[in-house]
Here is the input.
Amino acid sequence: MSEQAGGWDTGADSLHRYDDYTQINRNQRRVDALKLALGKGTFSDDIDLPGMLHLKCLWSPHAHARITSIDTSAAEKVPGVVTILHHGNVPRVPYTTAGQGHPEPSPYDTYMFPKKVRFVGDRVACVAAESELAAARAARLIRVEYEVLEPLLDSRRAMDPGAPIVHDEPEASGLPGYDKERNLAASMEVFHGDYAAAFAKADLVLEHEYEVPYQHQCALEPHVAVTWLDEDNRLVVRVATQVPFHSRRILARVLGIPVSRIRVIKPRIGGGFGGKQEILIDDLPAMVTLRTGRPARLFFTRREEFSSSRARHPQILRWKTGVTKDGVVLAQELEVLANTGPYGAHALTVQGCTAGKTLPLYKAEGYRFIMNTVYTNLANGGAFRGYGGPQGFFAMEAHMSEVAERLGLDPADFRTKNLIGEGDENPLSKALGEGGEGPPQRIRSCGIQECVAQGKAAIGWERRGKLADPAPHLRRGLGMACLMHGSGIPGVDMASAFLKLNDDGSFNLHVGATEIGTGSDTILSQIAAEALQVPLHKIIIYSSDTDMTPFDKGAYASSTTYISGTSVKKACDGVVEQLKQAAFEIWRHHGDPSDGPLTIADEHVVRPDGKRLSYSEICLSTFYEHDQHQIMDHGSHMSMESPPPFAAHFAEVEVDVETGAVRVLRYVAATDCGVPIHPQNCEGQIEGGAVTMLGYALSEDFVFAGGRLLSDTFRDYKQFTALDVPEFTPILVKTFEPSGPFGAKSVAEIPTDGPGPTIANAVSNALGVRFRKLPITPERVREAWLAKQQGQPASTRA
Amino acid sequence: MRSELEVNGARVAWEHEPHEFLTEVLRREGLKGTKRGCESGDCGACAVLLDGEEVPSCLVLAAQAHGHAVETIEGVGSFEAPHPIQEAFLDATAIQCGYCTPGMVLATKALLAETPNPTEADARACLAGHLCRCTGYVKPIQAVLSAAQRCQAGAQ
Ligand code: FES
Ligand code: FES
Here is the structure.
């Protein structure tokens, strides 16, 4: 359980503690960065094992088809082929690929190999061979006969009577709200307060529909897994994952072997962003290794990444707001129709967050949320940094600007009037827990008003409406959005850490927390260094190896700094007590007992009279001389709270009405993440998260022909590059979160929530046309502009 | 077939298949710092310097490197003495997951050899072919500019 004291305090009185820190709130060189800069081979694929087999998959060419026969005889004759897996020769165990806590709140609708393929890119077979080339050749020679079925390619049609049923097999099951007869992977309806009465009181009720596309995580390192049997015949899985402990648990289920026979090692990971919060490929090399006794490796190509992994769920959102004429929000209603594609990984929880992260930001008397997540035969939805937030914030924050416009209010003033603040209760936290009821939440630290104030100053908000257009065809505009997110899943996420002292006063810190590029190894080391009062290089961190480190839920839900960080602090606090106890004993043993309570400073235990013992001296004594024992401790942490970070984003854009191109000139992201453990790293999270989502706003999309994904290369799927990035100003607003380690809360996901609405609002401001669908491509800009010129309604849904 | 080339200053003779690309052969020979992000020339993770010029090694046949000098990330700096470019990336916190970093460091090296005083536009152009989903490019651009200053200071 969380160790929050029964009382409730805010961080307002603790801001002075910023000045006390010696190891945090400091930019230090990241503990892992030098080896990466030197190109040392530390990633999953950077090992060669003797006798390793290489795997290649055969993917479904059909969006929806029943496999009637598979003939592998020709493929088996290819020299070098060792084994071929398909639905006819592996166990059929329903599971979910979603790397979530147990029991996963996602439907069990996936099999190692399905008998019925449900999207172009679904698994049909997997060849293991002596070389990648042989495996690829053989995969092409597998003869498969299909009974092709009518595909379901439109989420709006999915619940219609007579629509093709994606999951018509008996084994699939899900939580309440799951209804496979209606293609429903998840659904829910929640409300708070008397929303109907609140809407009835409103002077203005505005309602619009918004639409957001698929978005791919595009981690630069593709999915990769290497497996082998160790000398004790245990299965070792070296995999690019965000969730090693969930991987171990889910693999045990799918492979039918005990957890005790599996060791999952997370080496260096080349980015995850949610795409690796999935047990997406680990089972295949693992199965080959178990069957053949040989090491096996599967490395996804970039095309496979796009067409056979996971992506941000597309949604159609209907947002309705009731306000008084002077701009007080009375009621909010959100209805979401989401498309999870063929399998329901994260279908319930991502969509739950679409409401849970957004609606509480503005205080109201009543709220209502209706959600249906449907199966289709398009690409597979899943976890992606932001986890439902970006979809919801696009709709809400575009909508709030529309409401402000209708009321004739400045969009910033309208927002600040209605924002949640310190001491406020989150009205929806109970109704919208992880797959069920959640614990109540109250805001202890909140810098949102300050974020708006500093952001406005940085972008020059007073210029809004007075911007000079540099040429007749170039229009400039300013836009903004307000944001909140969470820090871990309250009542669910648990992390643990183990710490021991070495002879030279260094410490081994073993954490389950999963460094995937976020900086968590550095942040957790800094927290330990601060708690122990040692320089950073005295902490030797080792993360995420299911044999060697204690449990951690993994790298997701913006939980590492807040949850894992507190587990580290607890372990350190225990070690500090032991250090003091040992020093006390040593002094007493030498007939010189301490004159009073002991403290720590600068790698020493210190007495009131100034006498000191270094950690190294204490360790040598406890190892070899007196009262011999290992100074070590562990800490586990789970929190019933999930303090939201807050942010306000601002952008200035320039729109070329002749070409439709939108150029982002400047971007400001003012963020309250509590005490920044490593300010530069926090800025990096903000910049990286926001730039990814500038692509969501303007250029990234999945283009399908029938069910086939056409934008399946980096050339056709347009991310932002170094040439497109605007002048970027990250601002860290000072707050202190009492429930976080040294006052910290999360920063990883909140930046992804902002660019969609911020850019849409800026483009709307530039052109006087509302954009309710992402991405805002040149075609859509041109279409909207031409429609406006011809006097047609000033909005696009095209 | 067999190709003779210079890799990070040492002459080597490598056996490989005629169809094999340089990325594959470098990695097989133990130079794992050269990464694979797309194998289609679009991401820059596999960048190496061929006679000092940046190329995507996933599009260069190993055979094409015969008689040429290849520099990989393993040839740049060491734990004891990181290259100023690497120091610049470290101090700017321009490295998050680090998968794009070897390519970016090599690209910076090629840029600074030609343009010791790059503008911000030069820095952006230098990184344009290097996809990075983690950093949003802001800190890498700063790192390139700071690397230029460090190299200049070192050269004086
Ligand atoms: S792997 Fe060569 S450019 Fe991407
Ligand atoms: S640091 Fe991860 S791709 Fe650049």
